[in-house]
Design a protein that fits this description.
The protein is of the alpha+beta class and 1254 residues long.
């Protein structure tokens, strides 16, 4: 079967669609060909895949070929089992007939002969030429078609259909399509079973000596090709995948074979070109060469994936294949041309990029699929870029490459090529060697900005000079004595390359140019070629010469021919990687490649683009915290910004350089950064530059409890600031924000330093002025300040360590509060020292207890304002003393201003000035008592009450108010206001009671005295001044009958004094003398009390003296009511009942009981008497006069009647109108009030005018 490989390849190239054979029995094909071919390709063909699942094929390609065509007749029977996929999948038999005899004798036998082959899928198309108007012909045609159906149809299959040439028949074409598809499906299923059986047989023989991979390949690809022609691409792809796995297993298990890849042009990858080489060229015994065959299989897989519209999978598979195949090439690297592996990988990546990009349509792909595609594209560009850089480094362009972290990481991990023998210098290359040596000598590393001395990053896994000489045929591996002559004073390998990371100045290049070795050691036949090591320049020339023989692509070779061409190609690959990564998931990779583009732009003077690229890279490295990488790129950005005169950006870069870890730069370099910062900040910048210096200037609160203040209190907050500057730096301003921890609506508040701070390296203690804050808990927010035009800000972070150390820096946001402002609370309390009443109209000490509540009252000022009826005796000083809660002993304040019995007893006399009182320093933190000398003034005499009706005066009458306003705090910002109520009262309350009435008219008047103060009252004397109408019996001085004076009335107790009186003449002897209406009780007394308890001895009376205090109270004595002057009576109604709306007369009769001459003139009663009617207006309407005078004769027994007409307004029991005599006292009227209490008023009588007839 392997002999058919060449024929199999030619058949595949000429067969690309399914064949449908046409057996033209009646020469009908020319007339129906156009109609048949219009049905191609077949629409929505329902086929079965390898797993017997139904699959719809949108456009199934097919081709109609006559059985007499040479393409079908040239096939030999022996080929059928191998190339069965190209045989017809359906056979259409075209037949027509005019009558039944012709059908029976000619057509039917011929059809029997045609369809007797069981391997064919056939059906008959009867073509009717009868015209529709010819009924006889049409009927005959129907009979003939019916006979065909009977002869050739079966129960399982309908194999006949009819086509009318003279009339339209749409159903025929649908029937034709369905029969063709059914035939193709049946044929395809049968052939798939055949191939599977053959493949199974070969698979069972895999481990036998007679097994041939070529035979297995032909069967497997025949099946895959048949699936591909049927547009079952998934099944075809699965066959190629299985074929690849089988081949790899065979290769790994078989003996060593020829790998391939040694022909001209093999360096160009053929991943997507299955026809790059014929399989007959790569066949080897019963198998294929691995190099070509694996690329062929991948090309076939890629072709199917493109047909399935899956370019993303092509890219993904391609990248994995390139990585895997590159490892395979490494195994045969000593057999392949120099750097063949690197060249093949580059061409494979570029070919895969171009092909997949042209097939990818982003508008029809989801966002995730698109990002994954661009990620793979970026990986392909990145891989080809690294391989391209390796080739460029080998030929001497490494000196011009940017030693960036990305390039170093990629190239330092990429191994050198490993040829069997390192290429030798060509015979005529002396000129090139000298040019390379000159290029090495003239190259010098670019000086870093700020004169930063950093070890260059490596671009090689090991020293190229040693690696190349080690691989020379006559040198042993790793023997340095074979590499270097004794005259070579080289102690370090990197110095040999002239661009070492340890020797950036390049002084060792002189030894490389020594005349001793400058001769042309370049001939392959030269005896020196193996006598001494190759110089670096010779290695570059030899590698370049070898690459010209390896690379067959002239464009690729041109990209390595000169440095500008190399940079152009390098820029193209780098930009492709960056652009694709930016559109993928891996945007950070794109940013890194932007930095490589920026390095090329910087080299060629495009500083603007370079700065933008470097900014992206620096932002990435800073965000990830890669400070080592940032230290490599940030100086380049700063240099670009300085060249572009971007002062703000340059200032920002300098600050960021200072913010990096101290170990990345020397002290000298860091001081240079600081000098640039100061110079730029105080330079000519027009606008301020805001910068975040969180890692350069950090801060925290001091250890210990937070500062606690009260609402409205200012203060000073101590903050520790750590400076990352290498030297002292002066700030123009420094402020810090405070943030409330639990209040979302509370904004941040700035607190500023009152002095211009100078920060030293390390730890600094800063004092900030704290204005009054709202209640809450506060943490440190943001540190802000200004250095010239630089406005910096810093957030607090902490990285641990000892806070007391000078090099402590903080990077973790603190949650511990530094300030607690308490909610509004009572910082001080002022209460009265005593709640008992004090003496009114006397100088008394009012005690005020001032109690600070966890707050200092040092320097407090008390404003005192007394209310009406109260005054402060300014002649006396205010006293302040310690307050004792448990037992209180008075402090002696007489004599000196301050008397100290012990350390806890202090009394000081203070002067009140303009209503203000300043607290002494000793009273700031202790409870004190203020004693105010006050006098409550009340000019109204006390009034006694009767024992029968013992009503007393209201307590409010003796209440006085003292308004207090206390200003305290450091800035007197705290204000406490309170109004204290002080109760003043008379020492006694007096009531009278007639104890007994003697037969002789003498009255025993008992005067009860109630003590109203919490003090002992000592009565020295008492007398009673009676009102007219009463006289004393016995003594004429008004003293009581018995003398028990002096006696003491205890607090809250009472005493009684008895006076003997009788009724006397109420007329005054002197008419001009004022007549006393009430009696007056006079008491002389003394008081013994404590000012801490209540009433006490007044300040203007010396203690121990007799009396000195007088009390007066009025007593209202009433004569017995035995003979009133007037009598008033209510006369009965004239009608039996009262009704609403009917007038009624109300009558009152007044009678004089005494003669007018016997009535005292003080009562003002004469013959004209004033009367007044009082009635509820809701119940009564008065028809007469409500107020008037009535004449009553002066003689005893005189009478007068007052009549008033009234109209009841409501029914029910109501109060009647009342008669009043305003000019006569109630005690002089008998039978008062006159009249009934309630009267009954009936509803009005019903009226017929309000009746409605039924």
């Amino acid at each position: 079967m392997a002999n058919y490989l060449a024929q199999f390849q030619s058949i595949k190239s000429s067969c690309d669609r399914l064949v449908i054979a046409v057996e033209d029995v009646s020469d009908l094909w020319p007339s129906v060909k156009e109609g048949f071919e219009e049905r191609l390709p077949l629409k929505k063909a329902l086929l079965c895949n390898k797993t017997r699942n139904s699959v719809y094929v949108e456009n199934l390609p097919a081709e109609f070929i006559l059985t007499t065509d040479s393409r079908l007749r040239s096939r030999f029977p022996q080929e059928l089992s191998v190339f069965w996929f190209r045989e017809p999948y359906a056979t259409i038999v075209l037949v027509t007939c005019e009558d039944l005899d012709e059908l029976k004798t000619i057509i039917k036998p011929r059809l029997k002969l045609i369809v007797q082959n069981d391997e064919r899928e056939w059906f008959i198309v009867y073509v009717s030429k009868a015209h529709p108007s010819n009924d006889q012909a049409a009927k005959m045609a129907k009979k003939i078609y019916a006979r065909l159906e009977v002869d050739f149809n079966s129960k399982k299959r309908q194999r006949c259909c009819k086509l009318d040439l003279q009339g339209p028949d749409a159903n025929f074409w649908e029937d034709l399509d369905s029969k063709i598809v059914e035939s193709i499906r049946s044929t395809l299923d049968r052939r798939v079973q055949f191939y599977e059986e053959e493949i199974r047989k070969l698979t069972e023989q895999r481990f036998m000596p007679v097994w041939s991979l070529c035979n297995f390949f032909i069967l497997k690809e025949s099946l895959a090709f048949m699936f591909e022609m049927a547009h079952l691409h998934e099944d075809a792809l699965r066959e190629y995948d299985e074929l690849e796995l089988c081949y790899l297993e065979t290769v790994n298990a078989s003996r060593q074979r020829d790998f391939g890849g040694l022909e001209r042009g093999d360096d160009q990858a053929a991943l997507l070109n299955p026809g790059f080489k014929s399989l007959t060229q790569v066949v080897q015994d019963d198998s294929f060469r691995e190099f070509e065959f694996r690329q062929y299989l991948f090309a076939r897989q890629s072709k199917l994936l493109f047909k399935l519209f899956r370019p993303v999978e092509v890219a993904s598979r391609g990248y994995s294949f390139i990585i895997s195949f590159s490892k395979t090439l490494a195994l045969y690297e000593n057999l392949l041309p120099f750097c063949f592996r690197e060249v093949w990988v580059i061409t494979a990546c570029l070919a895969l990029i171009n092909s997949t990009s042209s097939h990818f349509d982003g508008s029809h792909a989801s966002a995730d699929v698109g990002k994954e595609f661009f990620r793979i594209q970026g990986d392909l560009y990145s891989l080809s870029r690294v391989k391209f850089m390796r080739l460029a480094y080998l030929i001497g362009y490494g000196l011009e490459m940017e030693r960036s972290p990305a390039n170093s990481a990629s190239l330092s991990m990429l191994p050198w090529p490993k040829p069997a023998v390192w290429p030798l210098v060509p015979p005529d290359a002396s000129t090139y060697v000298l040019e390379k040596e000159k290029m090495i000598l003239q190259s010098s590393p670019r000086a870093k900005h700020f004169n930063i001395e950093r070890k260059p990053l490596p671009l090689e896994p090991s020293f190229l000079l040693r690696e190349a000489n080690r691989r020379r045929a006559s040198l042993s591996v790793g023997n340095s004595s074979e590499l270097f002559d004794g005259r070579w004073n080289l102690t370090d390998g990197p110095a040999l390359e002239g661009h070492s990371q340890f020797s950036p100045t390049g002084k060792v290049h002189v030894s490389l140019m020594s005349r001793t070795y400058s001769g042309p050691a370049n001939s392959e036949s030269s005896p020196l070629s193996f006598d001494r090591p190759m110089r670096l320049s010779e290695i570059h020339v030899a590698a370049e010469h070898a690459l010209t023989r390896t690379i067959s692509d002239p464009d690729f070779l041109k990209s390595l021919s000169s440095l500008p061409d190399f940079e152009k190609k390098y820029m193209e690959l780098t930009k492709g990687a960056a652009d694709n990564y930016h559109q993928s998931w891996w945007k950070r990779h794109g940013v890194v490649f932007d930095g490589e583009i920026g390095a090329i732009c910087f080299k060629h003077g495009n500083y603007d683009f370079a700065a933008k690229s470097y900014e992206k890279v620096c932002a990435l490295y800073a965000g990830e915290g890669w400070q080592d990488l940032l230290a490599e790129v940030l100086p380049n950005l700063a240099e670009c910004q300085k060249i572009l005169n971007d002062q703000a950006g340059y200032l920002s870069s300098c600050v960021r350089l200072l913010s990096l870890d101290n170990s990345l730069f020397s002290i000298k370099e860091r001081k240079a950064f600081q000098e640039e910062v100061v110079r730029l900040a105080h330079g000519e910048m027009k606008h301020p530059v805001p910068l975040d210096v969180s890692s350069l200037l950090t801060f925290s609160g001091n250890p210990g409890p937070p500062l606690e203040v009260c609402d409205g209190d200012p203060g000073s907050l101590s903050v520790t600031v750590w400076s990352g500057f290498p030297d002292d730096i002066e700030l123009e301003s420094l402020s810090l924000t405070l943030m409330a921890t639990f209040s979302t609506d509370e904004g941040v508040k700035d607190i500023k330093s009152s002095v211009t701070p100078v920060l030293k390296p390390g730890r600094n203690l800063i004092m900030l002025e704290l204005p009054p804050q709202r209640p809450g808990s506060y943490v440190l927010g943001v540190l802000t300040g200004q250095i010239g035009q630089l406005r910096f800000r810093s957030h607090s972070f902490s990285k641990g360590g000892s806070p007391d150390s000078d090099d402590f820096m903080s990077y973790e946001k603190p949650t511990r509060p530094v300030l607690k402002v308490h909610k509004p609370r009572a910082l001080v309390d002022i209460t009265a020292a005593s709640s008992s009443a004090l003496l009114i109209n006397e100088v008394q000490w009012v005690g005020l207890i001032v109690s600070p509540i966890n707050y200092s009252l040092k320097g407090a000022i008390l404003h005192i304002d007394t209310g009406p009826g109260l005054m402060i005796e300014e002649s006396l000083k205010i006293e302040m003393e310690h307050y004792k809660k448990a037992t209180y002993d008075m402090v002696n304040c007489s004599g000196l201003n301050v008397v100290k019995h012990d350390e806890s007893e202090i009394c000081e006399r203070l002067l009140l000035e303009n209503g203000q009182l300043s607290f002494p320093d000793w009273a700031g933190d202790v409870d004190t008592t203020l004693w105010l000398p006050v006098r409550a003034i009340d000019k109204i005499l006390a009034r006694g009450t009767s024992a029968v009706n013992p009503s007393r005066h209201s307590v409010v009458d003796g209440m006085r108010m003292i308004a207090l306003k206390l200003q305290f705090g450091i800035f007197h910002n705290q204000i406490f206001e309170r109004t204290v109520a002080v109760h003043f009262t008379e020492p006694f309350h007096v009531s009278t009671h007639v104890v007994d009435k003697c037969n002789d008219g003498t009255l025993l008047l008992q005067v009860l005295i109630y003590s109203q103060v919490k003090a002992s009252l000592k009565l020295y004397d008492a007398w009673l001044d009676l009102q007219p109408g009463f006289v004393h019996v016995g003594k004429g001085d008004g003293r009581p009958t018995s003398s028990f004076f002096p006696f003491v009335v205890s607090p809250s107790s009472r005493a009684a004094i008895v006076f003997v009186i009788c009724l006397g003449n109420i007329f005054s002897s002197d008419e001009t003398e004022d007549v006393k209406e009430d009696s007056i009780l006079n008491i002389e007394y003394g008081i013994f009390g404590d000012r801490t308890i209540g009433a006490h001895i007044p300040m203007n009376i010396k203690p121990g003296g007799k009396g000195g205090l007088f009390f007066k109270s009025t007593l209202a004595l009433q004569r017995p009511v035995l003979d009133p002057f007037l009598a008033v009576g209510f006369l009965t109604f004239t009608s039996d009942c009262l009704r609403v709306g009917q007038l009624v007369d109300m009558k009152w009769r007044i009678e004089r009981l005494k003669d007018l001459k016997e009535i005292p003139s003080s009562l003002s009663i004469d013959d004209e008497m004033l009367y007044e009617i009082e009635a509820n207006p809701d119940n009564w309407m008065i028809a007469g006069r409500k107020r008037g005078h009535v004449f009553l004769a002066a003689a005893q027994g005189s009478r007068a009647v007052i009549t008033v007409s009234c109209l009841p307004l409501v029914s029910g029991y109501v109060h009647p109108p009342q008669l009043g005599l305003p000019s006569v006292g109630e005690s002089n009227i008998s039978c008062n009030p006159a009249g009934p209490h309630l009267v009954c008023v009936l509803p009005p009588i019903l009226s017929s005018s309000f009746c409605v007839p039924a």
